[in-house]
Amino acid sequence: MTAALLDALRAALDGGGALVTDPDATTGYAHDMMPLAPYGRPLAVVLPASAEQVQACVRACAAAGVPIVPRGAGTGLTGAANAVDGCVVLATTRMNRILELDPDNRLAVVEPGVVNQDLKTAAAAHGLYYPPDPSSLDTCTLGGNLATNAGGLCCGKYGVTGDYVLGLEAVLADGSLLRTGRRTVKGVAGYDLTRLLVGSEGTLGIITRATLALRPLPAAPGTVIAAFDSVAQAGASVNRIVRAGLVPSLMEIMDATSLRASAAYLGTELAGEGDQALLLCQSDAPEAAREAELDHMERVFRQAGAAYTHATQDAAEGALLLRARRVSLAALEARGACMTEDVAVPRTRIAELIEGCTRIGTDAGLTVAVVGHAGDGNMHPTVLYDGADTGQYARARTAFDAILALALSLGGTITGEHGVGKLKQDWLERELGPVALRVHQGLKDALDPAGLFNPGAVLARRPAGNRRAT
Q1: Which residue, 63, 126, 389, 445, could crosslink 103 as a Cys pair with Cβ 3.0–4.6 Å?
Q2: Which pLDDT score is estimated for 14?
Q3: Helix (H) or strand (E) holding 135
């Protein structure tokens, strides 16, 4: 059976080195950037170059009853692209063409392997803008962004990936090609299958093409930072910004641990000795309005008790300040093993979440650092621990779960942008409830009755005898 499947996959891909079976090579495709989530050993990795090749690979796997795990660049943080034993990993990175960029209709048609930053650059050449900007934007691919409904630093003003998807093309579990959505600005014909596929983490279909909306390119942003003696003051400042009617294009928060980690990583000074939180905001409004918005934000921060503020309209200086936030995870990883969370709470509860994470860390005898998107309440607490110490690992997992429970208790969610993957299935029913979980399973069974697409992601993997017969 194995040899026959490999022959079928080789034929589907027309040769050319797009089939990988060497265990040393396939190991690199076995998991994403969250190795704490379970992963297995794939039978093979396929790298199709077209939707037709994806269809052929899916049909070959379906005939053999072998699971398929779709994968982009592997920058995810929940194990959503993690292999299961004996599966075929289908990586879409070779499908990396921008097929169309239409300035008049402000849209782009792309394949899933296009890197996020490459679309931004191509759009900017036409005076257009693709807003979603995950921290890994220079390496993550749009297919992965679509599969997880990725967010980023500018979501408070511009929204997430799903807000820019007009239509999709996806291969279903039987190998058929589904086209959803449209190219028009408006359209409500039929069920919204586009929204169903976005964020489904490769469990319902494999995205092979997307039609994405673009916006006019905004002005180069101005930047303002504010350091605070307490997390409570920083949280109050976020509330004041919202009440003042200001909508920064970016509003990020970093706690003291994250600040100092980024400072050490970059070899620079980012905060004073007593600073406990930093807010970093940007405005991309037109010139006069941008200056007024920056001034208004700086006044709000001072009124809220900021120990230090600094504003600049120099784009290069602003990019340097923003780099401290973008490297925060790498800076924390340089200090040891990390478990990075992705919870979201109402903006008014941000300070409570950060303070609660500090208590959770203290109770576990570990450090919990927090950075996040203050503009939309999406926080990324990170539990630091010694990966070689099994006792610390166990305490870190306990702290990880405690943070999820804290987020739910504050009216939040277990994931704001990274998805459920193979890491948080046990928490999904706690948030959604049994009725919603039953509906999820019904949709999965309808579109993937054999349960071959990304088994164990989002929903717990079901025994073969409990799946609907094909």
Answers
A1: 126
A2: 86
A3: none
